[in-house]
Fold:
Amino acid sequence: MSGGADSVALLTLLSHRADLFLHVIHLDHQTRGAESAGDAEFVRALAERHRLPVTLARRDDFEPKMSGLPANPSARYRAIRFELFRRTVSEHQLVGVMLAHHADDQAETILHRLIRGSAAWGLVGMKERTRMGELLVVRPLLSISRVELREYLASINQSWREDSSNISGKYLRNRLRPMLAGNPDLRRALLELGDACRNLRRWACAAAPRLPVDFRARQLATLPDVLARQSARRWLADRGVPVQEISENVIAHLRDMASDAASPPRAQFPAGLLVRRRGGVISAVR
Structure:
């Protein structure tokens, strides 16, 4: 947890659950000097008040030992956080992690992806329950707004920490946040868009045909766009391509091979997958 209102509200609500064994995890990103250290101390004291075990770590405990970290700071810190989550869950034999993302975070995520040109698949937003590798991730607050969480904390006189980096215009998300805060109708419309895209994806997953190991190009080329995307995605995943590496560009590449006879008959795909088209039949080898 970060010490922010959302994390504090989640911990406070969960602390009333007798059926849960809770363990607090906090990563000091070391980006705000004494303020970051103060967040860590606040989290330690809060966990102690609730009589909960706590794991506190610093970014430099992990960063030098991790290879292949993203250059983008936000993505880099996220990768380090999840490595901390995985290690703590494994070490203490926990079921998974609960994160405090709420309805406003969901709307920001959808708007952020929309601005970046994401297709419908990317506009579903965050899942309430998902797996990242072997790590179970649960987000129980996605239907609750930022304002409601703060009102709840104020009603029980529970303090929290404000992260000054959240008001910096350096990050696109921070520039989007005031726009959504002042326009609840926009937030509602974005959440409805996310729900619609999620329903579309569920339908496509159920309706898209599963392509055989070696399939005729026209089997993919003649499918409607939504179904073709899902069939191509599934075929690549079945061949061992990690889901996170099956981007829209990768899917489009496979569909081009199926629909355009003038396209190169051999192409390299993620995870060392070599896809070939021969006699109108598409197959893959490593």
Summary: The first strand starts at residue 24 and ends at 28. The chain has a mean pLDDT of 92. The chain has two domains: 5-101+126-161, 208-285. The radius of gyration is 22 Å.
